[in-house]
Task: inverse folding
């Protein structure tokens, strides 16, 4: 036998390194957006740096062998790493999970399987105004700060994928300014039979405030005669006119829908308010 | 009787001529540790007398000479004794003497009786000298503990005892005739060496069988397990199953979401608490912390406001504060108030209630009031049980190193790193369980199923508090989740109680605190938060 090494130190060091680099990879590839908001990036980087420092420190004890070695505790780092390697998809409200608190009884429905993408006509060209998906999140946060929202040439509102939340808060805050304007907005069909009338639905996106555990659907209420033809969870592009109405005791902008067409899901399915 | 029960041991050995085997195979070394008078020599005599050793030639190395004499007949092999002066020699000198002895005669096994006051690492240095490394391999290390004096030894005899316990593979406990005593001894031993196999000494069969087994390689086993899992996934699962859209996908994403969001804060908490543990002198906090209970609780509130950390970080800091001797009422106030009133939480509450300063004020105010009352309840009824799982936590930390001792700067840093890593692993385990439970809870839609009915104020409040407990949301986001479409008064129950105590915190607390204490804390927190919110939230908010 040659040199003895401390196998527990080696394992721990390897796990710290793997998880640390993996966090950097998540941040770099934007894959973290499935789980947490862009706000968490500095924290994730901090965690990665600490873990790599720990790995380096533990490596110093590599040649200090110890008799008893433990390994099971490393599962704390290995389990998340392995899970993150799985090809996990985004959560849509129809996949049995919805806003726990707003009273949606969404459990037990069939899972959303992306049929809209296969059957849909190529209609979303008007809405996704050429944003490349990777930059979506960062520009999204910028959009809120600078509120660089502008109307299209014909005076209508074209809500692009990365300005969904910015437009939403803009329209809700300055309601009167947008009364009667034409709007084109994309989202998945969301229905809550307990809170909505039979001719209402919301083209919604899942809104993440902190992490995947607090996802809630958000969007503008639409009125449409053929709601029954819509399949919950399908991505659609809605075109209609904004009208200010009294809904549930409050003045609210409601879209009176002219046209609903199938659409591709956006590259980033969630929206982040900051 | 014992002979028959132990007879399995001799027969499993090969009867090959010892001399020939020695050159090819390394000698197995079995080591016995334990404090003075823990019965090490007695145990060896018992093994020699009652085990079916057949033709096994044994070399017994004694590094301690107690009252009990070794009863050893020459045909069993040989023995070598080292007294206290011998132990001053360098490891290579000692190893030289042992290998010399091994050269004189052929042996099949080496049994070592190690000194109870000398660190195990000394023996390891001897065993790992080039001379001995070629000849023998340490297979098993047994710690003989005395159920009655173990606690005393751990707190009063310096570092050698915990260090030996941390190094051994199994422990046998003497004088633990009742199940309660045995449980206590187990808890003590495992607080130093997590997952240690502990047997009562009377359970002869198990002790001897384990002692004379081959050493295990958990790290190797672990790596093979991971590799196998990855291969199985590639070959079996990936081609045939699609995760996207299945409930499993939902659970996994929720789990990772909670975990990725909580881990950085846990890490911050672990680093802060380790810094307190290693860099502050042992009694600095105890001395400086106000003796007056009212002042102490106020200090805790002020501390809670200064540390912008959420609940995941508060738990490890709380653990350290209690160990450092901060009065329990104040420490509990700190634990419960920090996640409610930290600046980040207040800011997110402000956004969630679209700039309603009143809601922010009520949340912070009720939070502080509840935390102070919870602290006071522990001041008025301290309770009989000690909060920590073992009293030795106050002198030793879970990593088996005594904290806060003087040392050079680099030693301090080494201790800081070691301590933070060990804390991270011990609390991280519970974070994982907490994240799993609450993601299952959400994915199964239990909350949404329950919330279908119509509630009055009282039941809505109770329901939301239970929900907050099980959802284990981070306190910096929970305001947004309940601000939509719920009566503000009842939502306050969620916002005040949720950050203070939830499933994830409960599990994290149970690593290091006694079950009775944790249950008491959860009940007090729930009761006081409920009363405070029920009585005050509606009058203040009118919702």
Result:
């Amino acid at each position: 036998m040659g040199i003895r090494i401390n196998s527990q130190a080696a394992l721990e060091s390897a796990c710290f390194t793997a998880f640390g680099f993996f966090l950097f990879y998540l941040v770099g590839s934007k894959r973290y957006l499935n789980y947490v908001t862009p706000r968490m990036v500095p924290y994730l980087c901090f965690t990665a740096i600490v873990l790599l420092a720990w790995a380096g420190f533990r490596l110093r004890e590599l040649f200090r062998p110890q008799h008893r070695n433990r390994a099971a505790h490393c599962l704390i780092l290995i389990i998340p790493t392995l899970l993150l390697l799985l090809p996990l998809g985004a959560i849509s409200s129809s996949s049995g999970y919805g806003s726990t608190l707003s009273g949606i009884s969404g459990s037990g429905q069939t899972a959303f399987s992306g049929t809209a993408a296969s059957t849909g006509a190529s209609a979303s060209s008007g809405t996704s105004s050429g944003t490349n998906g990777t930059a979506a999140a960062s520009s999204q946060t910028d959009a809120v700060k600078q509120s660089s929202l502008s109307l299209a040439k014909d005076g209508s509102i074209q809500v692009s994928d990365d300005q969904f939340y910015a437009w939403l808060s803009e329209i809700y805050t300055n309601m009167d300014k947008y009364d009667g304007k034409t709007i084109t907005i994309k989202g998945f069909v969301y229905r809550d039979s307990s809170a909505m009338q039979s001719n209402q639905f919301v083209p919604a996106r899942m809104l993440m405030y902190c992490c995947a555990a607090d996802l809630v659907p958000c969007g503008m209420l639409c009125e449409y005669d053929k709601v029954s033809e819509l399949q919950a969870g399908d991505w659609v592009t809605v075109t209609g006119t904004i009208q200010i109405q009294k809904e549930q005791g409050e003045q609210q902008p409601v879209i009176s829908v002219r046209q609903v067409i199938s659409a591709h899901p956006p590259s980033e399915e969630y929206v982040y308010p900051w | 009787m014992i002979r028959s029960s132990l007879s399995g041991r001799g027969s499993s050995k090969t009867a090959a001529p010892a001399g020939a085997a020695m050159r090819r195979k390394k000698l197995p070394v079995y080591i016995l540790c334990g404090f003075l008078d823990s019965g090490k020599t007695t145990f060896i005599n018992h093994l020699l007398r009652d085990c079916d050793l057949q033709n096994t030639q044994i070399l017994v190395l004694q590094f301690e000479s107690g009252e009990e004499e070794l009863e050893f007949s020459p045909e069993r092999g040989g023995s070598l004794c080292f007294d206290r002066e011998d132990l001053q020699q360098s490891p290579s000198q000692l190893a030289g003497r042992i290998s010399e002895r091994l050269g004189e005669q052929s042996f099949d096994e080496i049994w070592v009786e190690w000194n109870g006051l000398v660190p195990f690492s000394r023996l390891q240095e001897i065993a790992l000298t080039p001379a001995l490394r070629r000849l023998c391999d340490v297979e098993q290390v047994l710690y003989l503990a005395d159920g009655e004096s173990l606690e005393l030894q751990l707190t009063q005899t310096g570092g050698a005892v915990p260090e030996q316990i941390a190094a051994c593979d199994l422990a046998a406990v003497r004088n633990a005739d009742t199940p309660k005593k045995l449980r206590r001894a187990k808890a003590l031993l495992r607080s130093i060496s997590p997952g240690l196999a502990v047997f009562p000494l009377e359970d002869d069969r198990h002790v001897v069988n384990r002692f004379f087994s081959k050493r295990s390689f958990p790290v190797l086993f672990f790596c093979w397990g991971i590799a196998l899992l990855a291969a199985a996934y590639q070959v079996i699962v990936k081609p045939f199953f699609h995760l996207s859209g299945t409930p499993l996908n939902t659970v996994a994403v929720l789990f990772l979401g909670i975990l990725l969001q909580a881990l950085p804060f846990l890490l911050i908490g672990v680093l802060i608490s380790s810094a307190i543990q290693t860099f502050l002198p042992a009694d600095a906090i105890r001395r400086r912390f106000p003796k007056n209970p009212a002042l102490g609780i106020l200090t805790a509130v002020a501390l809670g406001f200064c540390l912008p950390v959420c609940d995941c970080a508060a738990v490890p800091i709380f653990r350290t504060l209690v160990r450092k001797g901060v009065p329990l009422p104040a420490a509990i106030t700190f634990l419960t108030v920090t996640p409610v009133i930290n600046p980040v939480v207040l800011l997110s509450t402000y956004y969630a209630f679209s700039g309603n300063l009143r809601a922010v004020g009520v949340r912070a105010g009720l939070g502080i009031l509840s935390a102070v009352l919870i602290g006071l309840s522990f001041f008025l009824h301290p309770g009989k049980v000690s909060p920590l799982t073992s009293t030795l936590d106050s002198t030793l930390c879970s990593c088996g190193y005594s904290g806060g001792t003087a040392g050079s700067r680099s030693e301090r840093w080494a201790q800081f790193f070691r301590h933070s890593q060990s804390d991270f692993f011990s609390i991280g385990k519970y974070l994982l369980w907490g994240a799993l439970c609450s993601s299952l809870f959400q994915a199964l839609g239990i909350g949404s199923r329950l919330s279908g009915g119509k509630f009055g104020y009282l039941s809505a409040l109770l329901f939301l508090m239970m929900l907050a407990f099980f959802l284990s949301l981070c306190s910096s986001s929970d305001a947004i989740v309940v601000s939509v479409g719920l009566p503000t008064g009842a939502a306050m129950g969620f916002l005040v109680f949720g950050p203070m105590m939830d499933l994830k915190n409960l599990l994290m607390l149970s690593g290091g605190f006694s079950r009775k204490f944790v249950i008491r804390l959860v009940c007090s927190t729930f009761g006081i938060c409920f009363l405070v919110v029920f009585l005050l939230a509606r009058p203040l908010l009118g919702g």
